[in-house]
Amino acid sequence: MSTETQAVEVEVKEREPLFSKKNRKLISNPLDADNPITVQVLGVCSALAVTVKLIPTLYMCISVLFVMIFSNVAISLLRNVIPGRIRIIVQLLVVASLVAVVDQVLQAFAYDVSKQLSVFVGLIITNCIIMGRLEAFALANKPGPAFLDGLGNGLGYAVILIPVAFFRELFGSGSLFGFNVLGENYPGNGVMMSPVGACIVLGLLIWFQRSRNGYTEEA
Amino acid sequence: MSKLNKNSSGYIFGFALLVILVCGVLLSVVSGALAEKQYEERELERKKFILKAALGDQLAEVEKSEIAEMYEQRVKESVVNSKGETVEGVAANAVKLKNEYKKLAKNGSLKEGESINLPVYMVMNSDASEVEFYVVPTYGFGLWDNIWGYVALQKDLNTINGVVLDHKGETPGLGARITEEKVQNRYRSGKTIFEGDKLVSVTMKKGEGNDYSSDPHAVDGMSGATLTADGVNNMMSSYMNLYLSFINAKKS
Question: Of A61, A109, A127, B246, which is least packed with CB atoms within 10 Å of its CB?
C-alpha cells in the first residue's frame, strides 16, 4: 500500500510553531508531489463518479475537506486513549458521523445538489484518503499538524477533482457551472459524461504531473 | 491514562460505548435541528414537480422563491380512492406515496381488500376560474430502486400535458436519464391514454431515435435503459388504472 510509505511521523518538538517549514509541507506536499489521487491513487472512485458537473463537484470537495479535517483532528485528540484493537471501527464511527452530518446539512441547504450527489456523499465514509490519513497520520501526531494534514489532503483531493470536472463539463455538456459556453449547437460528448471520460482525463492529468515532476515508478 | 489497561475488555467496551454515545447525541441534535428545513425543501420540490408537469417551460421563468406562492394560487388539492370517491379529512401532502404503493400487488393492481389514497392536484388556469390540468402522482419500481413521478392530464382527462419523473437509484447516464427534460419532453407531444373508451396508457418503447409522432400511445425510448423504461411504463399504466374511476367520474 502506498499509504504505508506516508506513515512518517513528524517530530513535533516542544513549542514548534504551527506553520513551521515542516508543517507547511503537510499542506503543500499533498497538493503535488504526494497527491492522494494522482500519486497515491486513493479515492479514485468518487473522482470518477462525481465529476460530471462542476457545481456538485465543488460541494463534494467541500464535504470531503470538512470530513477530512475534523476526523483527523478528532482521531488525533483521541490517539492516546483509543484501544488499539478497535481503532479502525472507532475511526469509521467518527468518519461516518461526520458524513451523516454533512449529508443532513446538504439535504437542508443544498437539496438539489444533495440529490445529484445522492449515494456518493454517504460513500465518503469509505473514501480511502480519509481512512488512510487517519491510520497513517492522525493516530501518531498532535491535533495541530493533523489539522494541517487534513487540510492539505482535502485540498489535494479538490485540486484534482475540479480540473477533471472542468474538462468533463466543458466537453461533455458544453457548459461551465451550468452556463453554456460552447454554443447551443454543441452536441455533447457521451464519453465525457460517463466515468470513462473521467478515467481518461485523470490519466492525462497524472501523465502531465509525472512528466513535469520527473516521477518514475520504482522497479 | 497510565493506570488503565487499554487492552482490557472493560476499557474497550467502555470506550466504545462512550464514543457511540457522543456520536449518537451529535447526530440526533443535527438531524433534529435540520428536520424542519429539510421538510420545507421536500415540500418545495413536490410543488415544483406538480407545477412543472402541468406548465412545463413556463415554469423555467419562475424564480424558486415564487413557486410556493404560485402553487398556493393555482393548485387545489384533493384525495380520492380507487373507486373515484373523494376521501375527506386527508391532506394530499400527508399521503405517503411510498406507503400507499405497498398496497399494490405485483401486477400493479390494488391488493384484495385494500383501499388506497390517491392525491389529485388540480392546476387552475391563470385567473383561477376553472381547472386547466389534473396532475396525479405515480409511484413504481425501476431497475434498481423506486421511481416516481407526476403526470399532468389536460382537462379532457385523456391528453398527457407533461410528466416529471424522478428516481432513487437508477444508473447515471442510463436509467437516471428519466430526470432529464429531454426525455420527459417526449411525453409533451399530445400523447393520449385512451383509445376510444379503453385505457391503454402510454408506453416508452425499446430503442432510441425512432419517430413515434404518428402513434399517440408510444414515446421514444432510452438506449441502454429499457428496464427503467419498463418500470416507467408499468408505473404509468398501473396508476392510470387506479385513477380510472376518478377519470370516468370527471368525464361524465
Answer: A109
Q: Return the residue in A93, A104, A105, A189 with the most chain B beta carbons within 10 A, the one to mutate for interface testing.
A: A104
- Biggest distance spanned by C-alpha atoms of chain A: 63
Ramachandran sector of residue B128 (left: φ over 0; alpha: ψ -120 to 50; beta: rest):
left
Plot region of A9 (φ>0 → left; ψ -120 to 50 → alpha; else → beta): beta
C-alpha distance from residue B80 to each of A218, B35, B89 (Å): 70, 29, 11
Cα–Cα distances in angstroms (integers) from residue B109 to residues B106, B193, B198, B234, in the given order = 7, 17, 17, 10
User: Which residues, 6+ apart, have CB-to-CB distance to A173 below 8 Å?
Assistant: A53, A188, A193
Measure CB to CB from residue B173 to each of A84, A90, A193 and give the nearest one: A193
> Which positions in chain A touch B11 (Cβ < 8 Å)?
83
Task: Indicate the pTM of the whole model.
Answer: 0.78
**Residue B170 DSSP class:** P
Q: Cβ(B188)–Cβ(B171) under 8 Å?
A: no
**Residue B204: strand pairing partners:** B219
Mean pLDDT across chain A, nearest whole number?
Answer: 84
pLDDT at residue B147 tops 90 = yes
ipTM (interface pTM) = 0.74
